[in-house]
Amino acid sequence: MSEDARPRILLVEDNPGDARYIRELLDDAVSLEARSFDGDALVDRTRGAQADPVVHESRLDDALDYLDDAGADVVLLDLGLPDSTGLETLTTLLDHHAAVPVVVLTGLTDREVGMEALRRGAEEFLVKDEINPELLVRSIHHAIERRAHRREQKRYETLIEESTDVNAIVDPDGTVQYVTPSAEYVLGYDPDELAGENAFEYVHPDDQVAVREEFDRLAGDPDYRATVDFRLRCADGSWVFLDARGRNLRDEPAIDGFVVYTRDVTEQREYERRLEAQRERLAALNQLNDVVNGVAGAVVDQSTREEIERIACERLAASPSYEFAWVGEPDPETQEVNVRASAGTDGYLDDVSLSVAPGDPASEGPTGRALRTGEMQTVLDVDDDSDYERWRDLADEYGFRSSAAIPIRHEDTTYGVLNVYADRSDAFREQERTVVEHLGHLVGHAIAAAERKQALMSDAVVELEFRVREIADAVGADTVPETPIALERTVSVDDGEFLVYGTVDEDGVDDLRRFTETVSFWKSFDVVGEDVDGVRFELRLSDPPLMSEVASLGGSVRRVVLGEDLRLTAQFPQDTDVREVVSAIRDAYDSAEAVARRQVTERDQRADHLADVWSDALTERQRTVVETAYYAGFFEWPRATSGEDVAESLDISGPTFSQHLRAAENKIFARLVGDDAAD
User: Fold this and answer.
1) Residue 220, CB half-sphere, CA atoms under 13 Å: how many?
2) CA-CA distance, 357 to 343, in Å (whole number)?
3) Residue 542 neighbours by CB under 8 Å, 6+ apart
4) Which of 127, 247, 329, 669 would bridge with 416, disulfide CB 3.0–4.6 Å?
């Protein structure tokens, strides 16, 4: 045997005489060179030839350093060293290098210590006075081989225990003879717990027929190779998908049964299920996008709310993804939901009764909740939704499994609710939910634009002026302002959120700050700048009662002056029911009274053209950005407010603010110079 094939031995011994004695024994052991130490644990053939395979260290620390740097195939360890004594010497070495085999060297009186060393992880122990060359070589060889075998066994056990493969030997009647330890990792069962059990009792009921058929074929044909996928119940009650193969080895004395090889494919099957569901949802989403695009194109050309709602229902009902659709709105007196438009309902609406009245069971469905909250409501599975029990029989009769109630909203106005029904469960999740929710906003915007067109085509709008007495008590403030606060422009930035721009005398800034601290719906204010009229400010409001009421009735707040009393000026379309407006304002504040009503004539032709661009060409977000920037002083020079400040007020990024602003400017100036704003 070549010299580079000899095992690398680290001798750790502080007694020079004992160390020299051990070296002499190794030199005399001719048989050591004759033995084959093949295997990575014995030979490092990449190291090349070495003059001396034995390295001697007299201290434990030096031995550990050597093992860190060079390693060894075996360690001959004396337990009495200058820097460590007793069994702790062995423990310390194995804590640092658990893979290296150790042969402990003891004295004649230390046999008990040697036995304890074996229990702590040593492979062998030798009494120094009894060592001879043959015994030394054999002990080294056994120590190396035993540690290598133990390492391989540990590897095998780890691989088996944590494998996703579970193999078993099963009798023809399904009784489990043996199952691999991996059953605990995959199924949660102790393998001994499964022995003697009938495997068929753990198979999913829907899969038992297929599994039994394969077993019967195995029993009848020893050459048959069974393959079957089935679900097996785990210890925690869940189900795991197994891909199984089987062989009939009843003629093998060591087996005498069916060998079943299984592989856990749960993740693969779940992935395939999700992929298929995604494909179905993607197809529905593509169809829905076509519907939304079709609705968007169709409703833009319509001039009335009725036409817009009818077209939206017809396009949805005609889509392969949905069964039928309808639009409803609540009656202000009875609070019942009345149908405004429908398509494909086929008698469903004759059998259903819905409401928005609190406490009425008919208001607890998705339609009632959507109208009350202004948020989209879905039923993903009519069989599993406890709130849908009242209408479950109707769902079975008309063949739908899920539904969505989408508020038709624009800014702060809810025009009604769009209901859509599908014959699929989970039809309104994720992207599909987002798209249908957007459809509600699109229809709401189209209705608002149509009504705005009608208002712009008329000769005048109705302007109403209200006075609210004892305003401090009404809004929950400590006192009324000493100097009037004028709120001159209101911009709706989100549902229930408004930015208000106005002016106040310099002496009234403290009053404005005090109101912001005490009035619950006054959230914050910032000084924008100063001019001849006083200090200009930006005020953020959340759900202010008066402004919310005006907006919900289709009106716009033109001016509010807050002093000893509150004076509100608002404009409404000419066909507005003024009594309904007055009643709503009084519901918000008992002391409110209407003090003036006027007909306001529209502006000149050029203003009409710009109004068309403002209402039709600009998006809702673009209008919001322009209004906010204007009243915040962004267009003044020098600028009173930076673009970053305006973007922060709107809770958007600076680049997004610039993008919306540039797009709006382009459309407005295109109309001013006679160009086509659409270009």
Assistant:
1) 6
2) 26
3) 496, 497, 498, 521, 523
4) 329
Cβ atoms 61, 93 nearer than 8 A: no
Distance CA 477, CA 497 (A): 20
d(CA 394, CA 480) in angstroms, rounded, equals 57
**Rounded Cα gap, residues 175 and 195, in angstroms:** 8
Q: How many CB atoms lie within 10 A of CB 387?
A: 13
- C-alpha 569/C-alpha 502 separation (Å) is 14
Q: Write out the two tokens for 212.
A: 């039994």
E strands along 25-64, which residues? 54-57
pLDDT on residue 35:
45
Residue-level length of the chain:
679
CA distance 481 to 539: 16
Classify 57 as helix, strand or coil.
strand
Mention every residue, 6+ apart, whose C-beta is less than 8 A from residue 147: 41, 99, 100, 101, 123
Q: Strand 102-106 vs strand 74-78: parallel, antiparallel, or unpaired?
A: parallel
Tokens standing for 535? 């200090």
Q: What is the rounded distance in angstroms from the CA atom of residue 363 to the CA atom of residue 373?
A: 12
Strand partners, 328: 339, 417
Q: Are the beta carbons of 419 and 405 closer than 8 angstroms? A: yes
- How far apart, in whole angstroms, are the C-alpha atoms of residue 212 and residue 220? 12
pLDDT tens readout for residues 138-188? 888 888 888 878 776 665 555 454 456 888 888 888 899 888 888 888 899
Mean pLDDT lowest among 55-69, 232-246, 612-626: 612-626
Give yes or no for a contact between 164 and 264, defined as CB atoms under 8 angstroms apart. Answer: yes
Residues 6+ apart with CB under 8 A from 11: 19, 22, 23, 54, 55, 56, 57, 75, 76
Domains, the chain: 3-159 (3.40.50.2300), 165-264 (3.30.450.20), 289-451 (3.30.450.40), 460-672 (no CATH)
- Angstrom CA distances, 438 to 157, 432, 442, 618, stand at 56, 10, 6, 17
Which residues, including other chains, have CB under 8 Å from residue 549's CB and lie 6 or more apart? 584, 585, 587, 588
Q: Are 107 and 81 in contact (CB under 8 A)?
A: no
Phi, psi dihedral angles at 56 (to 5 degrees):
-110, 130
Beta carbons of 400 and 325 less than 8 angstroms apart: no
Q: What is the pLDDT of residue 46?
A: 34
